[in-house]
Amino acid sequence: MRFPAQGIALAILLMLGLAGWARRWRRTPQQLLAFALVLGLAGSRCGMASVPRPHSSDPAQLIPVDGPAPVVQLIGRIRADAPIRDQSCRALLEVSRVDGVVRHGRSELTLEDCEQPLLEGAWIEVRGPLTRPQPSAHPLLSDVSQRLAAQGCWSRLRTDAIRLLHQDATPLADARRRIALWFIESAGEERGSLLAALVLGSAQVSLPECLRDGFRVAGLSHALAASGFHLSVLLGTTVVCTRRWPVACRLGAGVAAMVLFLALAGAQASVVRAVLMGAAALLIREGGHRSRPLGVLLITLVVMLLVHPPWARSIGFQLSAAATAGLVISAGPIEQQLCGWCPPSIAPLVPLLSVPMAALLWTLPLQLFHFGAIPLYAVSSNLLAAPLLSPLTLASMVMALMVLLLPASITSLLLPVLIWPVQQLAGVLIALVLWIRHWPWAQLLVGRMSPWLLMLLLPACLPWVLPSLRRWRWRLAPLFLIVVGVQAGERLQDRWIHVEQWGRQWLLLRHRGRAALVATHGDALSCHQAERLSQGMGHQRLDWVAVLDPVGTDQRVCWSTITHTLQAEQQGRLPLVHGQRLQSDGLSLALADPTGRILRVRVGQRIKVLRRLDLRPVHVSSSGTDGVVHLQ
């Protein structure tokens, strides 16, 4: 029920924003009514598209409600490149035929033991069982069914072999691959993928997980996602370089820059929003008029939702819209307030501080709702990274154009010389991000916020971001205190959270703000889901983790990121022997029988006896508790 709650919260936010807008700019009742009707139309369009359904010719219609999955033969076209991850490839397939019958729809293809990446535009024939994606077993875990439904896909097919029929011409995909490959080969995997992401966006580039995580914890994820920042660098440079040209030439150069950016980054919600706003601002500027950024933003968002309502569910669209609204509405007032508070010696830094502060304030409720985390040093990291990001982005874009436009003989001579200083600058940025990531409390995990708490938080935050509602700041402060109190109370509760998915089980134990975990499997997928579960509940580190399965050497790095104490099965031996106990304050795990088939788990004063196989409750007699392993 997350989307209806988001819709209610969005409706409340729009009504409050509409009231503040009317009061601040003294709009006439006719203007207010017209704007409310447009918002209502966009909202109704989003509501009607909130629950997408497969059409009659979709492959999902062949899957019976009960019974075994049918084995079918699909012929279709791969929609986007699928890199190799964990020795498999996963791609979205545009289906053309099913068992020789014409069908139109999409299905997610998973190819086991993938030797080469699946490329966009490849027509393939594949055979395997057709199944429905399973919903998430817990709100904090990734929901495959929702992810695929947002892409118009309601079926999955897993196989170990495909037959390539032919390859379509894909000039845009070829250009993206060429840019990314050249950067990675020239600057290395880490630095090269970073430079490629500054041109293409992280959605088009496979970034190392540690790098992606470091930028997220430092509050710099926007630097990797293609958005208004990248377009502003490109369009601003184009405007400066063509300022002496005739108006028609300036417009042509600006439009060409935006089209190139849209083509390379793809039609993502944040990219489309940036391009539409950039086009409007360019036309207004060249027409000799003064633009109103807030009006341009509102019109852009409404048009986007009317044309493609599913964007309303996109986290990227929500964060992009909120951050842009913060820059338009709150950056100026925040800068004025900081100028009054700060000494003259640091006055030049005030404009650099006001922009990330405004974006952080406006995106804070969304970050709490979707991720349950706050990057505490986001303002500082943006201030430190700002001198590096703009020149890196501009240099990467220039070199990408040279890779695409110049002959190979010239690029082989020029680009190795040009990329050396850019490569060193990228190394400095990566070192800065990883340094900030390891600062104390770099990421404050408070746990995912419920939709109802979000609806209390929104009116409490609005007076702090809308200057016209400033006098309501302390009047609505009790709402903020209620949200903090309820969220803190939720974290301090004693809870048993059992999750089962894909044949794996996780048991998260919580006691007075501390937590531990018991998992039945130790593979990479199990560790990744355990990390999502613990961080979504607001726990950066667990007291201990017991894995009832062998943990390979390569997975130990993953498990060590969520706990310092890992007890796992090794060479057929259980993590604990009979008489031992794994224990921290209020949390413990012990074997309840000599065979190790029964576990005794304690949370606070409550004790449960569970089957080791599936972590389900059973009733057995008590046994001894010698050999306690006590953790501080």
How would you concisely characterize the structure shown here?
With 632 residues, the chain is of the alpha+beta class. The chain contains 20 helices and 19 strands.
Provide mean pLDDT, rounded: 84
Terminal CA distance:
40 Å
Biggest sheet strand line-up: 1-3-4-6-5
Structural class: alpha+beta
Computed Rg: 27 Å
**What fraction of the residues are assigned to beta strands by DSSP?**
15-25%
Number of helices: 20
Strand count, sense and barrel status of the largest sheet are: 5 strands, mixed, barrel
Could you name the ranges where pLDDT drops below 50 across 5 or more consecutive residues? 622-632
Q: What percent of residues adopt helix (DSSP H or I)?
A: 40-55%
Shape: globular
Structure description:
The chain is α+β, with helices and mostly antiparallel strands. It contains 20 helices and 19 strands. The protein has helices at about 1-25, 30-50, 145-150, 170-185, 190-200, 210-215, 220-225, 230-240, 245-265, 270-285, 295-305, 315-330, 330-340, 350-370, 380-405, 410-435, 450-465, 475-490, 525-535, 555-560; strands at about 70-80, 85, 90-100, 100-110, 120-130, 155-160, 160-165, 375, 445, 495-500, 505-510, 515-520, 545-550, 565-570, 580-585, 585-590, 600-605, 605-610, 630. The chain has a 5-stranded mixed beta barrel with strand order 1-3-4-6-5. The protein has a 5-stranded mixed sheet with strand order 10-11-12-13-14, covered by helices on one side. The chain has a 5-stranded mixed sheet with strand order 18-17-16-15-19, with no helix packed on it. Helix 13 (about 330-340) crosses helix 14 (about 350-370). The longest helix has 30 residues, at about 410-435. Residues about 620-630 have low confidence and may be disordered.
